[in-house]
Amino acid sequence: MDPTYIEIEPTKGCNLRCRMCHVSFMKEPLEYLDLDKVDFSFLKAGTLVTLGAVFEPCIHPQINRLIDTLNKRGCRIVLITNGHNLHKKEIPALFDSDLEMVTFSFDGISKETYELVRVGGNFERTIDNIENFRAAFSGSDATFAVNFTVLRCNLHEVERAPAFWGKHDFDVLRFIAMTVREPDEFILKNSLWEVRQDYFGALDRAADYVRQNQSRLLITSPYFQSKLGVENGIVSSGHPQSRFPRLYPREYQYGADHGMRFPCKSPFVAARILWEGSVMLCHNQRIGSLYDTPFDAMWDSRDAWKLRTLVRMTDQLCNRCDYFRLCLNSHFVDLDKIENYYSQQMLDRIAQARAAQAQAVTA
């Protein structure tokens, strides 16, 4: 049983400081995966590899070497990037890749809004980078997508975003409600919970635009499935040239299989490799380091099977997993429940504060 889905986070850090992102609250220095210490021979031809999901992969000083290595192993590649520094990067290996999808993280459609949210970002330069990158892959089979994280401060741009990205010849626009992860004033003020009906209305108008204008662009949101029952949360106009995206994390990891009662088979089919060589199962459970142990040995190790046995027996870890709740299962969450707008860590903090307050009252 080999893994079929691998996430690689080659860096710990980012070139931007987005207001809602955990990176903005990090104090640790940048770290990069040391490619000289990693044996990638465990990767099989056809394995799907996602580069970057939590941090920015393209700031790695040897990103081209990493992609070239994946190419030589016959991997299929999904790249997630903010695109801000692409004009500085030489990544010729990308053009030789079996590139499945490129996703640009870009919140808003105006300079004022983008630069308010993505601190340190340059709207014009990033758009130029994205346009040039997209043009370079004209005629490619790769799917091009945008992740638009929605906050109160950019909510007014949601309904106009499909027209904006449609003009840039993109295939998919994903609307993602901001998750409150820190007790920060800006983040708390920009939570969508209190204005969720306005958020739903903006998504409805965005969907109306796609359908009424026969847009080739598809738009997706958990709202479309959980509230409207639209299959896979994908709104389409029926345009003959629309390209329906594969929902890779859910496709590979969702479902009660391999003896699981909980609908997630992640530790049996997927792994994450972090910037310091750690290998993680269940998205956040460490089983060792590639710097001192071959991947295959860790994948079939006692620690790995101890974890797999644990999640087969109890849902304790699974029920507290943000990756499952807010990613794999996102299209099925109840958007009228406040907890689905908060990370588990924030929910724990709120519960602890309430308990302390109650204890103080009774003392």
Task: Note down, in words, how this protein is organized.
The protein has helices at residues 63-72, 111-117, 123-136, 161-167, 185-189, 196-212, 222-226, 248-253, 266-269, 295-299, 302-313, 322-328, 344-362, and strands at residues 5-8, 11-12, 17-18, 31-32, 48-51, 76-81, 98-105, 118-119, 143-150, 172-177, 218-220, 234-235, 270-273, 278-281, 285-289. With 363 residues, the chain is an alpha/beta fold. The strands form three sheets. Strands 12-11-10-9-7-6-5-1-13-14-15 form an eleven-stranded mixed sheet. It has a two-stranded antiparallel sheet with strand order 2-4. It has a two-stranded antiparallel ribbon with strand order 3-8. A hairpin with a 3-residue loop joins strand 14 (278-281) and strand 15. The protein is globular.
Q: Which overall shape is indicated by the principal axes computed on the Cα atoms? A: globular
Major sheet description:
11 strands, mixed
SSE order in H/E notation?
EEEEEHEEHEHEHEHHEHEHHEEEHHHH
Helix count from the secondary structure assignment: 13
Strand content: 15-25%
If you compute it from the alpha carbons, what radius of gyration comes out, rounded to the nearest whole angstrom? 21 Å
Number of strands: 15
**Helix percentage range:** 25-40%
For the structure shown, list the relevant keywords:
single chain; 363 residues; alpha/beta; 11-stranded mixed sheet; 13 helices
